[in-house]
Structure formats: structure tokens, C-alpha cells
Design a protein that fits this description.
Layout (H helix, E strand, L loop, with lengths): L4 H26 L6 H25 L4
Length: about 60
């Protein structure tokens, strides 16, 4: 695909926002009452990184970048 730089930046921003949403849901679901919040934050952070890698890999496979 021949996309302009602005469109590529917007697509990357959408990927980052989707990854943030997935990380928040994962963090909320992993938190149990009585456990420290830090564990849920770490779990969410790892989920964010994994989700962003998957999203960028899919975009690369579709030849967006």
C-alpha cells in the first residue's frame, strides 16, 4: 500500500490506543481483592507490549508499513 506518512502515523496511533484498551481490561481482570495493585499494573504493561507487537506484526503482514 502506498499510504502517506500522516495516515501511517494515525494507523500506528490507533494500534497504540487499541493496545491500551486491551491492557486496561487485562489489568482489571487480573486484579484480585487483597493483592497489590502493582501486580495488575505489571500484567497490564506486559499485555500492552504483547498486543502492540501483534498489531504491528499484522500491519507489517498486510504491507501497511
Amino acid at each position: 500500500m502506498n499510504l502517506s506518512l500522516g495516515v501511517k502515523v494515525l494507523v500506528m496511533a490507533i494500534c497504540a490506543l487499541i493496545s491500551v484498551i486491551v491492557a486496561m481490561v487485562a489489568g482489571f481482570l487480573s486484579h484480585t481483592p487483597g493483592s497489590p495493585v502493582g501486580q495488575a499494573v505489571l500484567y497490564g504493561g506486559a499485555t500492552f507490549a504483547g498486543s502492540l507487537v501483534v498489531c504491528v506484526t499484522v500491519l507489517a503482514a498486510l504491507k501497511v508499513f
